[in-house]
UniProtKB/TrEMBL annotation:
Its cofactor is heme. GO terms for molecular function: heme binding; iron ion binding; oxidoreductase activity, acting on paired donors, with incorporation or reduction of molecular oxygen; steroid hydroxylase activity. Pfam families: p450 (PF00067). The lineage of its organism: Eukaryota, Fungi, Dikarya, Ascomycota, Pezizomycotina. Belongs to the cytochrome P450 family. The keyword Heme applies. This is Cytochrome P450.
Length: 469
């Protein structure tokens, strides 16, 4: 078993240091244990930390032996109040003509089918219409009039409004004017709340906000699902994405309770928000902090505009996404901006890097150790999009793990990428944007579950761009 890093408080172990700054904790311990795995203790549980490319590949390629299902079920139970009987289904299997598979494979396959390829292209067309609509509502500036905004707060609001309409249609928002305020309170609580239900027990306001959201989803799912009601094969006002209509049917068919289904839909919204809000903010700030990068991205975004229809430009998002420099910029943003960690539960005894790990043990892969590894990334703290250009570095790509890996890799990763690129492009095509001064420089908040937002929000000055879309 890997050596246990020293700690002062029995049972709690490293938990307080971890919650304060998980990346700093594991990077400091990596210096103490160079080149070998080590173990953390949090709330009486050992987490065995591995970060080599080889171990990550082994863990992600053997999803049955290194199981993600108990982690998902625990997070949903703690953070979203998933009922006990549904937790058992989430950790269980279903039988088919092809044999037994984890229930979560069913859910994952539904996501994959809709959030890739032509289906994703169609979803992004709906997303773009809604994004432009909400930007017109909230960022319409006449003439040369300027407006100051705090970027993270406004980005979260914008992404939330766009996501709710795109993903869930228009029904759920009716008669719920406080949806955003409730969601923000829940989102702010979930950093600790997915690991323990204690934060919701201690905060009556957070518990009530979560309950109001779940009640709204209870009402939203209280309708027939026998036939898809839309003419369009991707989206309708009643259900939003056909993906969510199919997920609802899937959960009903497998015995998930009404409240469990509401938790599942809220989890989709939350996972999207916990990534795209910070991602869009961080991506835009990385551009604004470098005039050269800003001009380069702006030029590539302009070349992706293909025409105009009504009050909205037609935009070739695929062209922008496939540009090698844009891909490099995207990869650097997620490399330096990720603080996620993949946890897996062993389903049998294993040997890993010479250590014996027993069934039921937890293995832990903090991506910051992989993303800041100087043996893989030269000058790892430097933001350098060009490190990804001019040849495929297999070791770099194998070490880039912001969305996990294997059969449980985040199914929404391509959606998150396209949302981020589209938001950044529209902002820079519409506005001349400056960072207000004086203010403290942009710094990432280490207390995040996926992508880090700013530690302190940054004030920007927006002016309509001459010839902007």
């Amino acid at each position: 078993m890997p050596p246990v890093a020293p700690y002062w408080i029995p049972y709690f172990g490293h938990v307080f240091e971890f919650f304060r700054d998980p990346g700093k904790l594991v990077q400091n311990l990596r210096k103490k244990y160079p080149g070998v795995p080590f173990s953390l203790v949090m709330m009486g549980t050992k987490f065995h930390v591995f970060d080599s490319v080889e171990s990550a590949s082994t863990i992600f390629s053997r999803s049955r032996d290194f199981d993600f299902s108990p982690i998902v079920a625990s997070m949903m139970q703690n953070g979203l109040d998933l009922p006990d009987q549904d937790t058992q289904i989430y950790q269980g299997t279903f039988r088919s003509a092809k044999g037994s598979k984890p229930f979560q494979d069913l859910v994952h396959n539904a996501y994959i089918r809709f959030l890739t390829g032509k289906h994703l292209d169609s979803i992004m067309k709906v997303y773009r219409v809604n994004l432009v609509h909400y930007m017109n509502e909230n960022f319409q500036l006449p003439g040369t009039e300027k407006r100051n905004i705090f970027v993270f707060e406004e980005m979260r609001r914008l992404v939330f409004a766009t996501s709710v309409t795109t993903f869930f249609g228009t029904r759920i928002q009716k008669d719920y004017p406080g949806f955003w305020e409730d969601f923000r309170r829940v989102d702010d609580t979930l950093y600790a709340g997915v690991r323990s239900n204690l934060p919701f027990r201690l905060s009556r306001q957070a518990w009530q906000a979560r309950e109001r959201i779940l009640l709204a989803f209870d009402r939203w799912i209280d309708t027939a699902v026998q036939e898809w009601p839309g003419v369009d094969e991707i989206w309708c006002e009643e259900w939003g994405l056909k993906l969510n209509w199919e997920r609802e049917r899937l959960h009903r068919d497998n015995g998930i309770t009404s409240r469990g289904r509401s938790c599942a839909h809220l989890s989709f919204l939350w996972v999207s928000m916990t990534n795209v809000g910070p991602l869009a903010t961080t991506f835009l700030m990385n551009l604004l902090e470098s005039p050269i990068y800003k001009e380069q991205f702006q030029s590539k975004a302009e070349s992706a505009v293909t025409g105009y229809s009504g009050n909205m430009s037609d935009f070739d998002l695929t062209k922008l996404k496939l540009d090698p420099w844009v891909q490099g910029f995207w990869k650097e943003t997620i490399r330096l901006g990720s603080t996620s960690a993949s946890a897996r539960v062993l389903q049998k005894d294993e040997q890993l890097e010479g250590f014996t790990l027993h069934k039921g043990s937890l293995v832990f892969l903090p991506v910051q150790l992989m993303h800041y590894n100087p043996d893989v990334f030269e000058d790892p703290t430097k933001f350098d999009p060009n490190r990804w250009i001019g040849g495929e570095d297999k070791r770099q790509n194998s070490s880039l793990r912001p969305f996990g890996g294997g059969s449980s890799i985040c199914s929404g990763r391509f959606l998150a990428e396209q949302e981020t690129l589209l938001i950044a492009a529209i902002f820079l095509l519409r506005f001349d944007i400056k960072i207000k001064s004086p203010q403290k420089p942009f710094k990432r908040n280490p207390r995040a579950l996926g992508i880090m937002g700013p530690l302190r929000d940054i004030e920007l000055e927006l002016r309509p761009r001459t010839g902007g879309i």
